[in-house]
Records
---
Amino acid sequence: MGLQIGDPNTCIRGCCSSKSIPLHLPPSAFSLLSPIARGAESTVYEGRLDGKRVAVKKPILSTSDDLDKFHRELQILCELDHPGIVKLIAVNARPPNYLFFFEFYEFPNLSEKVHAEEWNPSINQVLMITLELAKALQYLHNLGIVHRDVKPANVLLGKDLRPYLADFGLAVHQKHLKGISAENWKSSGKPTGGFYKKSMVGTLIYMAPEILRKEIHTDLSDVYSFGILMNELLTGVVPYTDLRTEAQAHTVLEMNYTEQLLTAAIVSDGLRPALPNDESGAPSRLLSLIRRCWDENPKNRPSFSDIVVDLESIWEDRKGLESVTPMHPNLCGSVVSDASENDYAYQEDINWSNQGEQFSRKASNADGCAVNVWLDSSSDHLAYRPILSWGSFSTCGRRETMEDSHFLLPNMCNKEDIHAFGIFDGHRGAAAAEFSAQAIPGFLQASCSTRSPVDALKEAFVKTDVEFRKELDFFRKSKKVKQKDWHPGCTSAVALIVRDRLFVANAGDCRTILCRAGDPVVLSKDHVASCVEERERVIRAGGQVRWQVDTWRVGPAALQVTRSIGDDDLKPAVSAEPEITETVLTSQDDYLVMGSDGLWDALSNSEVVGIIRDTVKEAAMCSKRLATEAVARGSKDNITVFCIMEKKATLAAAMDWRLKIKNETGQKFVKSVYAKLKEQWSACRPDA
Ligand SMILES: Nc1ncnc2c1ncn2[C@@H]1O[C@H](COP(=O)(O)OP(=O)(O)OP(=O)(O)O)[C@@H](O)[C@H]1O
Ligand SMILES: [Mn+2]
Ligand SMILES: [Mn+2]
């Protein structure tokens, strides 16, 4: 049949065109079969096109930035024609299905080949693969294009083990990079690939020091990544680990502070992966080439033209030499299994939620709630009584694991005017967050008859911290936790509402804001080492604070937060004691937003208020909208959001929407939300 090239053969915007590659296809021309790989930015399927087996890359297009990116990737792919670069066969560059069709490459990608199949290439095979790749990159650079994501996972293999450079999702013309400054670096597409999929492993380890310092990516930054790749192929070792398989590297690097330390070491201390040892038989000229490629100073790195010349001459030297020497004699057998047994026991089988619950049960006395000093003390029955609805949303976001936890405790102790809400953002594992989300509400309920709200909150944080660390220690001694230097922690924010009084207790970098008369009022301080007061407090308490890479960090663990539950290697400097604000609520107050730092990384206080202004004021919907928006704006963390809304505010807004929205579907939608809101209100206070 053959594929028809349309006239005009352009994308829907008209910015991409090609003489040889059809840019739109009739739906009958192709079909998608099963997915082969799910990346951060796309899903790759096996498919059929015009009767031929193909790989179909379907980019995730959720924002208009993503669409721009699609067109940029397409423009570049249309320009390329080289035997060392994956072959684009056709494209569907029109809505609703934006699809790239590539030649299908049977073999696993180079990363899987080395780490999953544990393939030991011979020196000659290493030379062949790196030479072909270098030629492809030389071609690319001659066109003025930088790839920006050179790594083994982006190298596909043909039947004869020929390498094909793939994934132009981050490639750009160098001339366009000139305008990118550190400010918009974030949105200009930092290497994402493995970033999310395999945490930082896929990419951080290939990033040149200048990129880690957030400077502009040049062709010489590709050379750096290529140097790391060459060494990885030679040693069979995932960079910066002494291990062979990627799954293990993932564990080594998955904890935030290790990433930070690694970044610091690469940037400031010139740390690089270990070169192969003497027994490997790697030619010394090859090792010296690798060293030059990953030189700290980009100016000392060779260009790909130099690299091609070098590799060809090393290849010439070796002509006639046998190529059967196994590459990693020292990495077989017991070394591997020992390491994997000893080092990977982070996620122990302990159920930390259960542990927290047990603790909270121990703390509570059965009739504790009968008398309630909190309500009695505010005996002013004329006081303002807000009527609240609440909703939450929490997402793993672009991370692989979820370390946030939370609790919602409305009508606490069966009192309709007392509500408590808490967010816990775990780091170095989820254990502390899971424990605290159970322990703290239990503790609060147990203390409402005996302590003031402020004392109860303070004690809840401090006691939960002590108890958590005790448990961890206990498990460590009983050998249930094998990892001696595992120090999980979490930041936490708890809002306690007692009639018209709002108490916000905060330790760490979760944040709570109140929308008062349309403007955000911040009710908590971010406890991070970049805050001078906190830094000084940590130092006074005997902790160490150092500037590392891009910000101030505490202790050898390089923690950015200065208060937390857990983190027992940093106690007492990283304290669990919360700062507590007390606010008297008035009819001016519309809603409260609480969020883990994943929300606030991407949205400012006033942006949050702005987004809620444009959202139907249903608490769960607003929470979801905020989290989704934060992900779309590049937050790469777990995100938990609570919205706690006052009836009048939501009512007024819903009315407003009903008046504004004229079309039928819109009316229907707002009506259903209105009904839902009414139901919530009557559930939370039948008399109101
Ligand atoms: N033409 C192809 N033939 C066979 N497999 C392919 C092909 N293209 C891609 N793949 C598989 O899909 C994976 C992801 O492809 P690619 O890197 O292009 O997508 P991505 O979404 O940009 O991924 P990443 O998360 O690494 O950025 C590859 O590592 C490879 O395993
Ligand atoms: Mn990729
Ligand atoms: Mn990619």
---
Amino acid sequence: MTQIPLVVVAAALVDAQARIFVQQRPADKNMGGLWEFPGGKVEQDETPENALIRELQEELGIATETACLAPATFSTGDIDGRPLLLLLYVCRKWSGTVRPTEAADSRWLRSHELFALDMPPADEPLVAMLDALL
Ligand SMILES: Nc1nc2c([nH]c(=O)n2[C@@H]2O[C@H](COP(=O)(O)OP(=O)(O)OP(=O)(O)O)[C@@H](O)[C@H]2O)c(=O)[nH]1
């Protein structure tokens, strides 16, 4: 049976030094310990951009808006047997200070440094594309 993909949105926050924010998933979560871009699942009746704005507020305490979210690339994969569609946006403008609320750890890294991180399989093509883009 064909399943509707789970849509997950994520942001590459890029600072003035061209560093990208990544955070480590808590050990007790699905894919715990892996590094990822902030974001999460798009809920019913949410646009992808509104979902990402909400997740950035919840996870990092920052505010941004749709006009500051540039669609960058996407990848596909699966989560527990369900197809995954992972949408990555680049965001260079937000208000507030990035303060992770849920992450086990976090870092600001140059794009080439992301290759050394242990990330979910669906993030690998995103990292390669980001490195080419930035
Ligand atoms: N945020 C985020 N999730 C990712 C990335 N790559 C990737 O495979 N995922 C997967 O996409 C799913 C996102 O779910 P989540 O648990 O972070 O989302 P959420 O905040 O809505 O979760 P909740 O159900 O705990 O409220 C996870 O299974 C996660 O492992 C990524 O770069 N960022």
